[in-house]
Amino acid sequence: MEYKHVLLITGGAGFIGCTVVRHFVNKYPDYHIINLDKLTYAGNLANLKDIEDNANYTFVKADICDFPKMREVLAQYHVDWIINLAGETHVDRSIKEPFVFAQTNVMGTLSLLQAAKFYWEELPEGYEGKRFYHISTDEVYGALNLSHPEGIPSPFTTKASAEQHKAYGTEFFTEDRKYQPHSPYSASKASSDHFVRSFHDTYGMPIIVTNCSNNYGPYQFPEKLIPLFVNNIRHRKPLPVYGDGQQVRDWLYVEDHARAIDLIIHEGKIADTYNIGGFNEWKNIDIVKLVIKTVDRLLGRPEGVDDDLITHVTDRLGHDVRYAIDSRKLQRELGWEPSLQFEEGIEKTVKWYLDNQDWMDNVTSGDYMKYYDDMYKNR
User: For the chain, which has fewer Cβ within 10 Å, the N-terminal or C-terminal residue?
Assistant: First the structure.
């Protein structure tokens, strides 16, 4: 079969990656989707069992840092579009192992860029019709002040906005904000973003960069807050909350993120940047309380019975106090909005983890327990 596009998605066995792969495989049978993943601790092919036999899906086990392999894969499958999701993403890990983050997030992205440059420039049409879409984070922008800890009415309104939706400051991350990364993770992502943009400015490669807020939803590795706490509540284990829990984040349902990526790769402007956020801010401690309330209700437990699991632990080094992303450019130019209020998304997410305990048991066995002890013991 001759495909309309051959789309390489790196990191496609991870949390966001598997959602994006599934979205494109199911929506575009005339696209050949190549899922390239190294299958590190958070990569799990079980996340994609429902589409692994689709005719337009191919999995390749490889590391984006392997430059000769990247050249081979691009040429073998005649790749014309790339969505780069591969990378190390957990801030706590970056504090312990910054070199790993620089290796994968910076050098891996550069390896993929250079391989794409060599392959596409050798073709008769050159860069015509090509796309290199790089997924980044709002953390590259630094941190915002928590100027209104009590909350004020949000300036953002979408069909998914809740009545009680609040903002905790008057500043927001916009696409023209200067980069001010604070953690080794965000520094590595900022560096990779700069490399991507440089390949457009220097060589003319058609690139797009998006910066997203915290994602949540099914298939997220339980080093992140929501799946970790759902599992701990179920088993009556402590819920380690960093510091006073007043840190604020914007939250984006992962399937809404996949829809945005689809829209941007098809209709976004070349060499442009788009912020993708959920148009909502939540304090960490309020999320924890909402997750407890939701889990207890779905498990048939009395309300408040698991509130005593909240355990305040030593705060993360250099913990940024507030991230708040402004997605109005994407809303205005391409018509994208999140589809779910946060409470609706949490309901769907918690129910998925409770209904898929076998998946959770599988990913939390073995080395995960050593990781968990390393992260939270003696804090």
Answer: N
Say if 31 falls within a structural domain: yes
Q: Which of 4, 324, 366 is nearest to 142 (CA)?
A: 324
Integer Cα distance of 40 and 62 in angstroms = 10
Q: Residue 119 is part of which domain span?
A: 1-142+179-212
pLDDT at residue 368 in the model:
46
Catalytic residue positions, numbered:
138-139, 185
Look-up of token digits 């969505």: 83
Identity (one letter) of the amino acid at 374? D
**CA 264 – CA 24 distance, rounded (Å):** 13
Which among 168, 356, 164, 134 has a CA at the least distance from the CA of 265? 134
Structure tokens at 17: 């990656």
Residue 8 belongs to domain with CATH number = 3.40.50.720
Distance CA 350, CA 364 (A): 17
Residue 373 pLDDT > 80, yes or no? Answer: no
- Residue 192 falls inside a structural domain: yes
- Locate tokens 């589809």: which residue? 339
**Residue 190 burial (10 A CB sphere; 0-12, 13-18, 19+):** buried
The DSSP result for 112-162, as a single string, is HHHHHHHHHHHSTTTTTT-EEEEEEEGGGG-------TT-EE-S---TT--
For residue 237, how far is the Cα from the chain centroid?
A: 26
pLDDT digit string, tens, across residues 48-85: 999 999 999 999 999 999 999 999 999 999 999 999 99
Handedness of CA 244, 293, 213, 165 (dihedral sign): negative
Q: What is the pTM of this model?
A: 0.94
Backbone angles phi, psi at 280, to 5 degrees: -150, 140
Q: What is the tens place of the pLDDT at every residue in 162-176? A: 666 789 999 999 999
pLDDT-derived band of residue 239, with 50, 70 and 90 as boundaries?
Answer: very high
Residue 359, domain member (yes or no)? no
Instruction: Supply the pLDDT for residue 285.
Output: 97
**Count of domains in the chain?**
1
CA distance readout (Å), 247 to 147, 285, 286, 321: 12, 8, 10, 5
Q: What does the DSSP 8-state code read for residue 309?
A: G
Helix (H) or strand (E) holding 342: helix 342-355
